[in-house]
Specification:
The chain has 160 residues and is of the alpha+beta class. The protein folds into two domains: 39 residues; 113 residues, Ribosomal Protein S5, domain 2. It is 47% helix and 14% strand. β3, α4 and β4 form a beta-alpha-beta unit. The radius of gyration is 22 Å and the shape is globular.
Length: 160
C-alpha cells in the first residue's frame, strides 16, 4: 500500500509535512490539543443553559406558562436555578427534513442567547408545522415576542 507522501507531488509532500509541523507547534504553544473543545467564548450557549433530561422537560410540561402563535409554542416554568435554561422540541411533524429541524433549533438557540434580563425559568420551544417554510426574520421576531411575553408573565408572578 502506498503512503500518502508517495502519491503527492514532491512540492506538495514537503508542503503538507511543513504545514502539519507548524500546526503542531502552534497548538502545543497555545495549549490546545486536537479533538478537545475550544475555550468558551463570552456569548456562547453553555451546557448550563440547556435542559438535558426527560425529568427536566417533564417538569416544564407539567404546569407551564404558555405563549403560542402560528410558528411556535413556548412553555416556561420557574427553574430554581441561577440561569434561564432552554429545551428544544422540534418534531418531524413540524419540519420533515433534518436540515430544516436543525435550522429551527439554531435559530431558537440564537434568539434565546441574545435575550437580556430573562428570568431564571426553564423554557421549552416547540415548533409547529409550517415553521420550516417561514422566513428567518419572521421566525426570529416570533421567538422574540414569545420571550418578551413570558418575561412579563414572570415579572407579574414575582410581583403579584
Amino acid at each position: 500500500m502506498a503512503s500518502v507522501h508517495e502519491w503527492l507531488p514532491p512540492a506538495a509532500a514537503k508542503s503538507s509535512r511543513a504545514v502539519a509541523q507548524k500546526a503542531a507547534r502552534v497548538s502545543r504553544r497555545s495549549g490546545l490539543r486536537f479533538g478537545t473543545a475550544l475555550p468558551p467564548s463570552g456569548e456562547g450557549f453553555t451546557p448550563e443553559q440547556r435542559l438535558h433530561t426527560a425529568a427536566e422537560f417533564g417538569r416544564v410540561f407539567a404546569d407551564p406558562a404558555r405563549s403560542t402563535d402560528r410558528f411556535f409554542t413556548i412553555l416556561a416554568r420557574p427553574g430554581g436555578r441561577a440561569l434561564a435554561r432552554l429545551g428544544l422540541t422540534i418534531s418531524r411533524r413540524a419540519a420533515k427534513r433534518a436540515v430544516d429541524r436543525n435550522r429551527l433549533k439554531r435559530l431558537a438557540r440564537e434568539t434565546f442567547r441574545l435575550q437580556r434580563n430573562l428570568p431564571s425559568w426553564d423554557f421549552v420551544v416547540l415548533a409547529k408545522p409550517g415553521a420550516a417554510e417561514a422566513d428567518k426574520q419572521v421566525l426570529h421576531a416570533s421567538l422574540q415576542q414569545h420571550f418578551t411575553r413570558l418575561r412579563n408573565v414572570a415579572a407579574a408572578a414575582t410581583h403579584g
